[in-house]
Amino acid sequence: MSNSLAGIVTLIYTLVVLVLLYMTYAMSGKLAPRRKEPSKDNLYSCGEEPTPFAVPRTFTLTYFKYILIFSLFDVVPILVILSVSLIHPLSIMEYLLVSLYILVSAMAAIIIVR
After folding, report:
1. How far apart are CA 27 and CA 29, in angstroms?
2. Phi and psi dihedrals of 104, rounded to 5?
């Protein structure tokens, strides 16, 4: 298989995966429950009701572990790709795929944080 054909096949597979990812994200938005239950915001401690004099929550770190996992699985491959590009010069198609990967990673980071 020639390099140009392999690049086209890779691009087609990448586009198919991106379309499937977008469809999954769109369907999860449609299938998610719309109304928010008030019990979701309450603190839970072994089935006990919170006391009225308890200190209210002001700061939570609920997304911190997701950001750490995202950093581990998305920043490390970018660093590996960029370090490999110093050893072996990349073709135009590979630069496009790296740029697309960085764009998808940035969009995922925005979705996680918001």
Report:
1. 5
2. -65, -40
pLDDT, tens digit (0-9, with 9 covering 90-100), for 15-69: 898 898 888 888 887 877 777 777 666 666 666 665 666 566 565 666 777 777 7
- Rounded distance between C-alpha atoms, residue 34 and residue 51, angstroms: 29
Question: Amino acid letter at 43?
Answer: L
Q: In this structure, what DSSP letter does residue 15 have? A: H
If DSSP codes are grouped into helix, strand and coil, which group holds residue 47? coil
Contacts of 50 (CB under 8 A, 6+ apart): 42, 43
> For the whole prediction, is pTM greater than 0.70?
no
Rounded distance, CA 91 to CA 97, Å? 10
Partners of 45 in beta bridges = 48
